Amino acid sequence: MLSRLEALLLLGRGHVAERPVRTLLTVVGVALGVSASVAVRTANEDVLRSFQETVMAVAGAATLQVSGGELGLDETVIAVVRKHPDVMSASPVIEQGARVAAGPHRGQSFVVLGLDLLEAAELKSFRVRSEGVGEQSLDHVLSATALFVGRRLAVELGLTEGSTLDLLVGNRLHRVTVEGIIDPPSGLPSVWEDLAVMDIAAAQTLFGMVGRLDRIDVITEPSRPIDEVQGALQAAVSPSIAVERPAQRSRQVEEMVRAFQLNLGVLSGVGLLVGMFLIYNTVSFAVAQRRREIGVFRVLGMSERAVAGLFLAEAAAIGIAGGLLGGALGLALAKGLVALLSRTVSDLYVSVIETVGRSEIGMEEILGVLAEGALIGGLVSMVGALGPSLDASRTVPVLALAPGSYEANRQLRMRTVAGIGVALLIVSGLLAMPGPISELPVFGYVSTLCVLVGLSCLAPLLIHGGWALTRRGRRRVDLSASGVLRAIAADQTARSPGRNGVTVSALMIGLAIMVGVGIMVRSFRHTVEIWINETVMADLVLAPGLWLRGTQHGMLDRRLPREWEALVASVPGVAAVDAYRDLRIDIQGRSAALVSRDLRLHAERSRYLFVSGDSAAILRRAAAEDGIILSEVLAGRLGVKEGDALPLMTPSGERRFTIMGVFYDYATDGGKIVMDQSLYRRLWRDDEVTVFPVYLEPGADLDTVRKAIAQKLAVESSAYAPPALVSNAELKREILDIFDRTFFLTYALEAIAVIIAVLGIVNTLLTSVLERQRELATLRAIGASDRQIHRLVLWEAGYLGVLGAALGLVGGILLSLLLINVINKQSFGWTIQFMLPMGVLVEAVVLAVAVALLAGYVPARWAGKQPIVEGLRYE
Known about the structure:
By secondary structure, the chain is of the alpha+beta class. It has 28 helices and 23 strands. The strands form 4 sheets. Strands 3-4-10-7-9-8 form a 6-stranded mixed barrel. A 6-stranded mixed β-sheet has the order 16-17-21-18-20-19. Strands 15-22-14-23 form a 4-stranded antiparallel β-sheet. Strand 19 (about 645-650) and strand 20 form a beta hairpin.
């Protein structure tokens, strides 16, 4: 009696020894799917871990942090905190972004921390060394320009002890001297290697923040519950000041970006779904090829469970091999994705420092990722092989000697499978109706899966229907060589609707994702363009240097002096200047943008795109009645509407504001509140400005006015660094560039899914050629040329491509509706105007046929070169 292992070796010998190319294609397909999934998950974790580790490392031993948000704190708050009996220590902190202002590294940014250096080395777990001296006492280097830089940052910028560095912090230039290098005490990689540190008194003086702090790090009495101390401190300070645990900052960021990263994760899983079809095809062919052997094993006493287990084990082996390869490839891809994701998250959500992405990956992490890849690959392969394995286990020994009976049975079940597909499409429509769960479109994702699986179930019926149509069209006899080849190709495609249906489904999924996301992106971009053209009307925008790049860090990076308003207004050609203030606040536990501006000026010269009502009338009423307007996203998340009262926490306590209108906005994640600048300055006591929108007089030359403003500021405000002066066209272009960057990774994941589908077509055609060696040899024996055999296989590939394109277009349109109206709406709250770009549909069809023909080239060439004698002997 054969053991299971011996039987497995006998059944699987064809894949490795006899069919190495087909096995390799399957392994590579699984590897690509696993690599996309592993890379996106690893990069997502690295980006968030970078932010989390920075927060926790800078917080050090602190158990609580007292923060005033983007407006900062009055340093007198520290005295209130230190008076609490359960506070062991309270350390003031300044955290600001800096950029190299000159030299070969100009523009490179990093974070400067202002700390009490006399106690920071112990509380923050870092040390400073000086060349040739060893550790240096920090209280001897507290000068106003002394800077300490992390070891890795020093290497990147080419700095050593004694180097001078010109820095741009906020909108002011400063020259500092490197007095030492920061090392983590353990010698292990640390976020401190990418940061710079100054004494806090020196930082306040140098940066113009005397009397101001970003936050206070608090160490509480270990014997006291932290929650009790937190509540007591919150009651002791102003209601607008937040007292929270350091970990809360990272959790808030994680909540902000989770929908974005979840969508990426789901999209990366498409490659795995397509890989399942590839495995299905591979195992299906193995089962069909070894029916006789399976029948023999069943006669010898092997159980159904054992037969299914053998094929599942074979699929698992292929999947594990592909998973290991995909894990290694995913690690390599993740390194590149970290930078891309960090930039995207910084553009859309919060500034992220790339520290983890630049550090060396340890062997333990590598082994963990490889194990994860092997597990994913094995599970995906076993799921894909489940159907063929069960089919093999049900083999009837007597019928195993009757070729074609099993395929005939599968054809008889075609209508049942199609019925399941229709039912899944109906279920998909029903699942699109419920709302989100915890603000995540869970039912939307399940609905999307039902669409893809439902259309896949319709693929065999489509193949049969396509064959029937071509057969009906062939009633008029076409005896030309091309006509005969087309007829044979169509008949061969319909001969195996099960296996070919899986191949068409794999291509359909790749194309449906590409078409669906393409329609959504084009519709979204079109909506954003309409919004930009109707709402962004200022001729010039005067802004901090990195305002458009979204990489601001600290209060100074989002601040311009208000006196510039009068300076700019005095420039000839300038008609009006708006003072636009933008900062993040918490509303009912959610982060949102609070914007103040001159609403009367905005009503006169610009507009908001309101859901209902006249923009000018709403803006004037909001200014006159101390009301606010809300973006559609925030109104939806808070469940409020026009006319409702919204409570907001101000430095003076909680106040309720009437919502005068709800407007569309696509520039701010989390939503936006807008109020008149006079109301904001009265309640928040903040006189700073983020940007100045500038309106020109009719006929004024843009370039001339821009140069005049730059010259005026250079003379009147020489202490400040030159700001960015962005024209209306440049601003619109930059907004769209950020939009396009956001979806760049999406296109890469789509490409991976299409590549895996191409491997599936190659696999299917190679299988078809192998099964038909006798048939192809007979055709050649009766006079068919190598070129005609070549064209025959390409015709088959073309049929598969056309059928995949047809299903892909239907699936893509359905997916785009789900993406626009369900997934995007529930994830981000944006209203997108649907448009059907014909260019995307044409590109999809051309791509489907092109990749199918390309995939069929190698099998076609191979089929034309097979020896006739061996083919006639093939069993």
